[in-house]
């Protein structure tokens, strides 16, 4: 199966809401749908994780989905810091 870029677009869901009285919090989450691809998780400064998976990925951090090479290109484009622990 050939993947198209639109097959692994990141989707944002939810709203940032905090209700102190009700002790309730909601926040934005980024979601990658359940397809086989590499997932880059970062906070805008550092790579938090880079891994290959085929299930749904949800994070409060920024997500990028693509091939391994596309993820490495994104790391370099953004100038993200990383170490060996960042790569699963």
Report on the structure:
12% of the residues lie in helices and 39% in strands. The chain has one helix and eight strands, in the order E-E-E-E-E-E-E-E-H. The mean pLDDT is 82.
Task: Itemize the secondary structure elements and their pairings.
Blueprint: E1 11-13, E2 17-19, E3 24-26, E4 29-32, E5 37-42, E6 47-53, E7 57-59, E8 62-66, H1 68-78
Antiparallel strand pairs: 1-4, 2-3, 4-7, 5-6, 5-8
The number of helices is 1
What integer value in Å does the Rg equal? 15 Å
Query: Which strand order do you get reading across the main beta sheet?
Result: 1-4-7
| Helix and strand element order | EEEEEEEEH
Report the mean per-residue pLDDT as an integer: 82
Helix content class? 10-25%
Task: Give the overall form.
Answer: globular
Taken as a percent bin, the fraction of beta residues is 35-45%
Uncertain runs with pLDDT below 50, 5 residues or more?
none
Features:
3-stranded antiparallel β-sheet; globular; mainly beta; 88 residues; single chain
Care to give the gist of this entry?
The protein has about 90 residues and is mainly β. About 10% of the residues lie in helices and about 40% in strands. The strands form three sheets. The protein has a three-stranded antiparallel β-sheet with strand order 1-4-7, with no helix packed on it. A three-stranded antiparallel β-sheet has the order 6-5-8, with helices on one face. The chain has a two-stranded antiparallel sheet with strand order 2-3.
